[in-house]
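User: Can you predict the 3D structure for this chain?
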Amino acid sequence: MSLINDLHSPANVLVCGASRGIGLALCANLLARDDIGLVFAVSRRATRSPELETLFKDHQRRLIRIDCNACDEHALQALAAHVRTYCDQLNLVCCTLGVLQEAPARAEKALTQLDMAGLLGSFTTNCFAPILLLKHLLALLRRQPMTFVALSARVGSISDNQLGGWYSYRASKAALNQLMRTASIELKRLNPASTILVVHPGTTDTQLSRPFQSNVAPGRLFSPAFASTCILTLVSRHGPTQSGTFWAWDGTPIAW
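Assistant: Here is the predicted structure, written as structure tokens:
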């Protein structure tokens, strides 16, 4: 099955957050496919990542590593210009950025733990960076079939919130969901073959989840490789008619 619906040439892909966790696993998974052309691996330390260096040794003609701080809009503008020197169309963008408990962001349990620095830290990485990434890549997403995937979290669902806590993380992911839903409406006018998906990858064994893994039910802590496979399966099964929707790793829809 082709990864991108109705695309009859190799897909050019950009992965933001590519040097570790799900982003790194996505790069490996994508490079193993015959229907993928170029893979742009983007992170703060893409050219200094030992894991990406290992992938590069096997895929020198297809893997392009780009250092970029996605929380810096000037860096995102430069990123788009860099990508345009290689191609004029991206067919898949996977934004795996996320922060939960990394200063100044933190997983607040009570209102008394909230502060401006923590809120801004969560929103900048979880919400502002993904939508600004989409903004600056827009010129590369206008013509051919394309899918933009943003990793969200089930705790960003307002209707599913039964436990409270994690104020800034929940709110930033809910805001991300709204921004992606709104962008999907505009993209449908600009490129009817566009798809925007918001995906909850499940609790994955990454740096983000490690402080909280003791509470995960047996069998529900996923490897990055498994999560990446689930994400690409969702991409292959959803097209423009599902644009602007929110999905769990197992293909079940999540209420906003």
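The first helix runs from residue 21 to 31. The radius of gyration is 17 Å.
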